Amino acid sequence: MMENSRSGRTEPAGPGPRTDSDSGLGPGDRADFDAFVAALDYPMFIVTAARPDTGERSGCLVGFATQCSIEPPRFLVCVSTLNHTHGVAAAAPVLAVHAPDSRQHPLAALFGEETGDRTDKFAHCAWTEGPAGVPLLTDCPRRFVGRVEDAIDLGDHTGIVLAPIEVPEHSDPTRTDLLTYADVQDLAPGHPER
Of 36 and 96, which is predicted with more confidence? Predict the structure, then answer.
């Protein structure tokens, strides 16, 4: 049995991370699936978090994120379990989700290539403190702050469900020049993939 950290409920433990051999894909299908996914051009996000008990801050570049409910409004961000931000986000009551534009490659590089295990990323960018101490990136006003509602084990990522609690008035939703997966293909992850 596993305790859900947000609800305190005890739930049956899942089967654990899947491997290629038990993913349901037949021989050769994994390459076809990888090609299908590689052709998609997702928007990229920078997720920031702060632990209320220690004040530790962290943030990372995230490619797996989406609105997952209209009513009530909910947003899902998936954070790699290898990432320094994972531990901080697991203890944070809120997260900030920033949508950088296509000109913000250097900011994406800071949060995608550096790791909080070795680098204080916030010493290299402008930020202010938001609700529950979450860092808000000054140069990335298209963002929202969300209260953590649930965390879901998704294998090598944890899905964190957020209920939006604050969206700044100066966040311009009409801009469509989002930084995308294609824009960051040149970045090397701070924590290499398995």
Answer: 96
Which residues does residue 178 pair with via DSSP β-bridges, in sequence order? Answer: 101
The CATH label, of 1.10.10.10, 2.40.50.140, 2.70.150.10, 2.30.110.10, for the domain at 42-174 is 2.30.110.10
Separation CA 102–CA 63 (nearest Å): 14
Q: Residues 143-171: what's their mean pLDDT? A: 93
Give which of 179, 161, 19 is closest to 110, Cα–Cα: 179
For residue 109, which phi and psi values (nearest 5 degrees)?
Answer: -65, -40
pLDDT in tens, 60-94: 999 999 999 999 999 999 999 999 999 999 999 99
Domain boundaries defined on the chain: 42-174
DSSP letter assigned to residue 34: H
Strands in 72-140 per DSSP E: 74-80, 94-98, 127-129, 135-137
3-state secondary structure of 67: strand
Q: What is the DSSP letter of 168?
A: -
Q: Which pTM does this prediction carry?
A: 0.81
